[in-house]
Amino acid sequence: MKRLSHEQLRQLADELRTEMIDAVSTTGGHLGAGLGVIELTVALHYVFNTPDDRLIWDVGHQAYPHKILTGRRDRIRTLRQGGGLSGFTKRAESEYDPFGAAHSSTSISAAIGFAVANKLKNQPGKAIAVIGDGSMSAGMAYEAMNNAYAAGNRLVVILNDNDMSIAPPVGALSAYLARLLSSRSFLDMREAVKQLARRVLPPPLAKAAGRIDEYARGMVQGGGTLFEELGFYYVGPIDGHNLEHLLPVLENVRDAAEGPVLIHVVTQKGKGYAPAEAAADKYHGVQQFDVISGAQQKSVPKAPAYQNVFGDALIAEGQRDPTITAITAAMPSGTGVDRFNKVFPERTFDVGIAEQHAVTFAAGLAAQGMRPFCAIYSTFLQRAYDQVVHDVAIQNLPVRFGIDRAGLVGADGCTHAGSFDITYLATLPNMVVMAPSDEAELYDMVHTMALYDDGPSAVRYPRGEGTGVAIPEQRTRLEIGKGRVVREGKSVAILSLGTRLADALKAAEELEGKGLTTTVADMRFAKPLDHDLIRKLAATHDVLLTIEEGATGGFGAHVLTWLSDEGLTDAGLKVRTLRLPDIFQDHDTPAKQYAEAGLDAPAIVVAVLEALRHNSVGVVGARA
Q1: Which end of the chain has less neighbouring CB within 10 Å, N or C?
Q2: Which of 269, 434, 402 has the alpha carbon at shortest distance from 332?
Q3: What's the CATH number for 306-460?
Q4: Residues that are catalytic
Q5: 440-485, pLDDT tens digit by residue?
Q6: Class assignment of domain 484-612?
């Protein structure tokens, strides 16, 4: 690639765009973001000495072109499939992926780390962070920029402006100014003038002259004052699809002796593919699609998605109670809050990629007498754990958490799996944690939370379609901390939390054929536990097995702890907990992921039979 002419780079970019469209049409995945950075990807790899210069893509869903250019073209059609390429950057995948990503707004912090490490080790190499304007809604990006001075001229930040339209129109004049103001001759002259001003002017006047320089460049370039205040030398805006504009600016910045530089690049999501240009939102993440027509191959749903059930249940509560509000952090459609927004726009708040703010904002609403629902993916709520503890739980404020993408999530892999929320929420005093076995229970749990004012509560539910059960017209308020028995038996008791209930019932059928009558309980609550039901089942069954879609330390651990505290294991009760294995599971289909985790019906049967062959209390799964 380094040997290509500028004219050949244009051809390479066109071929790269065609290859990416064809590949994603067969695999599905993120499309629009990658198409928007084709030329930028080509230019960055052409100008900088990757992988020695560290190229860090924020979030990583725009990195498919980068993967194709860096030795992974032969595997690009395995994207997001079992054993195939990750849909995000991944250190274990390539030396050209120096930092794994999938959550937003981490790139600048990581790039500063790489740059400072090179500086301290006195070795060459720059760090280039590419961050989209959407990721700039997160405070972490500004925390990082405020510390960028430590990296000096080893840090380059590319602001990929493709949505917020924070830039004025770009063209030949702005490209010329960007090239001029990033050139070595201008920077050398600017530095000489600054040194002269320090020598001949009193300090207040020298400082004022520096301010005049910043604001003058801000006026001619149309922005950048904020970034200058944070210590960056701002260049832009420039057309991110014009290689003749990009290449000289990147070359100037590569060779600059100035401090940290921020290049403002304006791009278009879906660039070069008409259907994606016309509907950027629908082509951000896609299923398999026909390249010619752009039509996506979407299966007909057999049941409503859990997120839509949550949204509809929230609407019903909003119609009943004017204090119900909904908050989300840049995921309105993914959480179902978009449905609530259509009915109650004045009571809906999308705070951007700012989960910490979302939680404390909800706490403030609750403290002032509102009934807020804070709807955030399980994997993203991790980013606001301190706020959950300090601002909500300690103050016992009735914030209601709607936790989407609980459990394993298939093609998005471990970065988006909701593996830990039971553990990190159920350990908190005052917290109520519930999980529905189907969409009808989710509807009732939203109603229950809306009426519960005694403290914080959370309901976790999986990605994807429900089971197809009918949602009753009358909502039921569930008794906090009470489960239900859905099948009676005498030998084995399965305590199921969440949507593993269907597999628990299948396992009970198979155990029945082996002469082991089985009780199956839908526990509904990880906290508080239904102590009466657990005590009864422990006293009347030989084996007690818990199953959950969460990591070690969750529902099963709480059951084990309580049984131990009550001395209920002393009589030889065989207790087993099935939970997610202590690994970060790679992407695959959900069915294969749960089979690998030992959380499907065959694994339940194996666990019960193993328990009966041993006489000790312990934990075991289909995979020890």
Answers
A1: C
A2: 402
A3: 3.40.50.970
A4: 269, 355, 383
A5: 999 999 999 999 999 999 999 999 999 999 998 899 999 999 999 9
A6: alpha beta
